[in-house]
Amino acid sequence: MSLSRDNFRLAYRSLKASKARSALTMLGIVIGVLAVILVVCVGQGLKQQIAGQLGRYGRNVLTVTPGVSNMSGFSMITGISGSSSTLLTGSDLHTIENTRGVAEAVPLATASGSVTGDHTVSSPFIVATNANFPDIINESFSSGGFFDSDDNSRTVVLGANIAQKLFNNNAPLGESLTWRGQQFLVAGVYNFFNAPPFSVEANFDNAIFVPYSTAQQVSGNTLGIYQILARSNNIADTPQVVTAVHSALVASHGGSDDVTVTRASDNNGISDPTIHLLTMLVAGAAVIALVVGGVGIMDVMLVSVTERMQEIGLRKAIGATNRQIMRQFVAEAFVLSTLGALTGVVLAAAGVGLLRVYTSIQAVLVWQVIVFTPIVAIAIGVFFGSMPALKAARKDPIEALRYE
Amino acid sequence: MSLIELKDVSKLYGFGDATSVALDEVNLAIEQGECVAVMGPSGSGKSTLMNIIGLLDRPTHGDYRLNTQKVSRLSANQRARYRRDRIGFIFQSFNLLTRLTALDNVALPLLYKGLSMGKRNRKAWDMLERVGLGDRAYYHPRQLSGGQAQSVAIARALVNDPQLIIADEPTGNLDSNSSRLVMELLSEIHKTGNTVIFVTHNPELTRYATRVVYMQDGAVKYDEQTKLGQVGRYARQVMYAVPETTEEDDLAGVSAIMPVLDKRAAAEKAKRTRLAKRRKTARNRKASTK
Asked: Residues of A with CB below 8 A from B80's CB?
């Protein structure tokens, strides 16, 4: 079915004749397109941010986590994992450190207990790790540095947020704080981490870093390690090191395969399902909005057909065929949904821009979505619009002429 | 051969007991170049006849040949194409599209013929000039008087060079001056060789016709040739025998001849006047809501 320029001119004119109604009809499509594009662009932005962050680990870093990685997006969101989540232990750390090809290993464990500096924070995020931490996670300090490898040192390093909470705006460097009755010296304070707002890793800006061995002594040997980061000697050997570390751990666990070893740089597998599922969910809702927009078009077109019954009758009387009437109304639906879709795209692009400028969500324009969403929207609009068009086309000219 | 040949054409509405006969085996032949006035009381089947002749409707039974071609069984789209190429319609309520200018209204049939915009506008312009509205081309229907609006409708009916012009009460909504203007236009069209069929309630207007067909109860009751400028003989009888009051009659002072009518006719006339008044107020209301 070809739509001629005349059809579009007619459609444009009749839509202009009832501006408010046309605008309201378009609104459904506008919102649908806007929502779909924004959601996908924000989702994609988050994915890239996380990928970028994982990239910062370097290509020779491996991560070791307890449990088997059968993590679906579902379990990522609900926290219901298929495997039991026993944590890693200090002996696992030794096993990894002693595996051939591993240069160094960094444990990440959480500890509990309130901390008091100038102020008290009752349940801070305490990360027990070792002195190799800055080798793998490379972030800048606002003052001081990381603690050194002295096993029993009573020193801590603060994230930017927690430093402010504990010590207001005073420079905390060299101040001491109390955790579980022990005095700790602040050896360094981080700048804000170069991390995205949502992150697979916990927000280290709120973290108090304590030496792993010290934390174990203070809290009494019960610290489970939720992740071990390790660095291989060279990039080329990393895949073999991954296998070696895995088999060493399985061997030390008496043959049970209950750990996951991955190369951090291809670790998108952990983050993607979550973001992906979320994106899909919200985009699904947005698609529903789009369909509702289509129904809105159908509604308005039905009203329009009824309102213009006499016009249809006249057009048929002077020689319009069913198909020509149909085309006219389909053209109207097409113009409506096209204008709506284009408005949606423009607003979405503006929205992405505003998000980038005013929030830390680094949304990106995904051209596939920008191209295909309007096409789908237009298809939906035309589909729903063609039903009233068919109704109009099939009207008996005499009845239509007589219609009041 | 005749331009129009109706053979035993019937039109029924409804089913079973509720069937009503709008046309009852009508036989009618109209030659190229005739100007036919169709008269008859409301419900006599005039409009149904017009719809069938104008290919807006199909007969239930019978044969209709237009230009010797059998058209009574054509599909809706085939009929649409015939209407587009051969027939021009003029309606009582003008039926102009209010959103379009006079020019666009006139050009409308050409749009469905698939002409380019330039050609459409040129032809439409010529037609508007022909009906004397060249200076109103860009007016919208609302800005035109009734007579002007009907003239635009006539230009629209003519723009396709149709063989046949069908006018269903073209002066029904017009005052007598505008009526004259419109009828003069129609008769001019007739003089250039077109076949014109018009429905009217006003016997005076049969002066413009070469033939008067009078219908009653779905059948042709009288059919006579008249000279241009003369009121049809039967039409005149009809005028008195079955009083039919329209606005035009009221203006002409039909009430003045009341005493010559017998009692029964007077009673019927009173009834018809009441009906007509009701119709008129309804029409006025409709006009004012428009």
From this structure: 316, 319-322
